[in-house]
C-alpha cells in the first residue's frame, strides 16, 4: 500500500470513527427530565427509605456475615422486595469464610490497673497476651522499627485519623488496620493494638476487617476506643505499661449467604439494567444503620418509587436493586456478583452503590466516557435542585461495585457528606437514632432521579469489557 | 408587770436586737476584695485543676467505692495534697456496704434476637430473668398498674429525661431509678429495666444507685442505653417481646474507705474553716472525670492557689478541702463527715461542693441569713468577671454537704452549666476528653475567689446548730 493511499484510508477511518462517536452520543430525553423532576419531588416527601431502614435495623438488628442474624436479614430483604412490589426477586449465593466475635477484654495491669475498651479486628485470632506496650505514632514508625524489637510485646499504633467530608482520612486509618498487624508480627510482636480508625471521642472501639500476610502467624489484634488510646498514651508518658488483652474470636469454617436482588422491569429494554444497591451485612456491635441499612433502604425505596410509576412513564431499562452479602469482610458479595454477571457486563448500563452513611448527597460524578458526558451533565442538572454539585472526574465506584467496575462496568457516584460518618462507623453506636430522616429522603430523591434517568437514556455510559491492554494501562 | 413597763422592756429589747444585728453584719474587707481579684486572674491562667483531673483519671481510673482502685484513689489523694503543700493532710474512715458489678448482659429473644446495652443499677442483686416485657411511659404508670399484673414479667419504664442547664430533669430520672424497682416488685415483676436517666443518644447505659424498700425481695434491675430503649419500644410496637437479662453483681459485705482532707492554715483564725470539696469515688465504668475528678481537682487546686499566697495575704480562716468517700452509693462520706464534725459545726464558716461536672459556673448563691447577705453580694461582685450571676435564694447544698447542711451548716452553690452533664454522667464515656480545660480554669477561679473571700470575712454566714423547732419548721 502506497503512502497516499494509506493517508486516504486513515482519513476515512478517522471520519468514520468520528461519525460513529456522534451517532452514539448518549442522550437523556426531555420527557424523562420532566418525569424525573416529578419523581424527585415525590421522593423528597417520602419516608419510605426511613421506614425500610427502621425495619431492617429493628427487626433484624446486627447481622454479621454468616451469622444466624445474617440469614434473617436475607429473608427480610426477600420479603421486603416482594412487599414493595418488585417485579422479580431472587437471591444469588455468596460463600466466604466465617469469622465471629465472642468476647474481648483488655486491661492495664499494675499500679494503674483499669480496663480498656477494645474491639477485636475482624479476622483476628483469639488468644490472651500479657505484655509490655510499645507505642508508635503511625504505621510508618512501626514499619521502621528494628526487626525483632517487639519480641514478646504488644505494638500500639496511636495514629489519629482526620475528619473529612469525603472521608479521605479513612484511607490512612483503614490502611493501618489492614497492614498494621502484619507489620507488628514482622517485628516480633505478640499482640497488636491501634487507636480506632474513627473520628469520635467516645468509648466505642471501631472494628473492621484486617488481614495477615501469607506466611505469618496471626496475633490477637484489636482497636482501642479513642479515649482509651489517649489513656494508654498518657500512661506510657509516665513509664512502662503492661496490658493484658484477651480475645475470644476467630474463623469458624465456611458460610453461605446471599446477594438479594429485586428488579423493576423496564418498559422497552428490560434485559438492560441500571444497578443500584447497598450491602445487607453489618458488623456485629451496632445495628448497622448507617452501615449500611441506609444504603439498602435508599436504593430499595428508589426502585419502589420508580416501580410505582405508570407503565407509560417507566424507564426503558430495568432498575436492579442489589442488597450485597458480606461487604464488610472483603467485598464477597460484590466479587460474587461480578463473577456471576461478567457475561452480562454490557447489559449493565451503569451502577451506583450507597455505602457511606446517611448524610446528604453533595456531589455527583460518573465514569462516563466522552460520548456520555452530555448525558451525565443532564443527570447532574436534574440532581442540582437537591443541592448536589456536578463534580466530573472525581471519586470512584462504591465498594461492592468496584470488582465489576474493574472489569469495565460504568459507575456513578452520589457522594454523601461523611463528616460524621466515622464517628459511628463500625461501632456499637451505629444505630437508627444517628440518621436524619430528611437527609435520607434527599438520598432517596438522588438515587431515584439518577436511576430513572440512566435507565431512560438513549445510549450507554461506557460499560464494556476492559481489554488486557486497558488493564495493563490501569495498573 | 404592768402594761407600760412591759412596753418599755419590749422596746428596749427590740433596740438591743437591732443593734446586735448591725454589729454582727458580716463584711468582706476591701483588701480581701483586691487580693481576690488578683487570685481570680491567676487561677484563670492556671492549668492546675486540669493536671489534677488528668492525674486522678489516668493514674487511678475508675474507682468504685470499696474497690481496690478506691484504695488507690485514697492513697493518691493523700499524696496529692502533700505534693501540693497543704499544711495538714489526714483521712477519716467511712464504712459502708460494698456493691460490685461483675458482668451484665441482655438480649431480645426470638425472631428479632439481638443484644441490648444495659448496666446493672447500683444495689441490684444478680440473677437471670427471661420474661416478657411490659412497657410503661413513666413511674406513675407503673405505680398505677394493677397489683400482680406483672407477675413473671419484666417491667420496662421508658421515661425520657429532659435536658436542662441546671440538671432539673434529673429529679424525675433519678426518682425513677430509686423507686422504680420497688414499684415493679409490688406489681409482681421478676425484673426491672428503665431507659437510662441521661440525655444522650449513644449506646452507653447510665448506672446509678437504686434502693429496695424494706420487706421486698430485690429483683435484677438495670438501665438500658437510650438507643436500646428506643429499640425495645419499636419492637414492642410490633408485638410481644421476650428478653433475657443476666446480671452478675451484688453486695459483698462491708468496706472501709476514707474522706481524705487537706487544709491550708488560716492566718488568724485557723480553727475556723471554709470547706470546699468533691467526691473521690466514681462509678466503675468510666474514669469518673466529670463525676467527680473535676470537683476534687477544682477544689484541691483552689486550696493550693490560696496556700501559695504570702503569709500576709492568707485569709483569716483555714481552707479545708475534702475528697469525700462513696458519694455515689448514698452520700456515705458526707454523712460520716457530718457525724464526725457535728460538734465543730459553728467552726465551719460555710461549705461548697463541686459535683456537677466540669461546665462553667454560671450562678452563685448561698444559704446566708440576713446579716450575711451583704457579704454574699460582695463575693458575687468578685465572681461577676467570671460570667457568674448572683442568683440569691436559688439552689441548695452539694450532695456531700447536704447531711451537714441539714444540721445547720451554711452552704454556697457555684452552679455549673450542666447542659451536657447527663450525656456522660454514670457511663463508661465519663472520661477526661469530655472536659474543657478553660472551663475547668474558670471553675478553679470561682472556687478560689469564693473560698478566699468567705475565709477572709469579718463575721459568719449563719452556720449554727438547727433547733428542734427549726427542724420542725423545715419539715
TrEMBL record, chains A, B:
InterPro entries: CPQ, Peptidase_M28. Gene3D superfamilies: 3.50.30.30, Zn peptidases. Residues 259-446 form the Peptidase M28 domain. One of its GO terms (cellular component) is extracellular region. It is found in: Endoplasmic reticulum; Golgi apparatus; Lysosome; Secreted. GO terms for molecular function: aminopeptidase activity; carboxypeptidase activity; metal ion binding; metallodipeptidase activity. It comes from the Bacteria. Coiled coil: none annotated. Residues 1-21 form the signal peptide. Homodimer. The monomeric form is inactive while the homodimer is active. This is Carboxypeptidase Q.
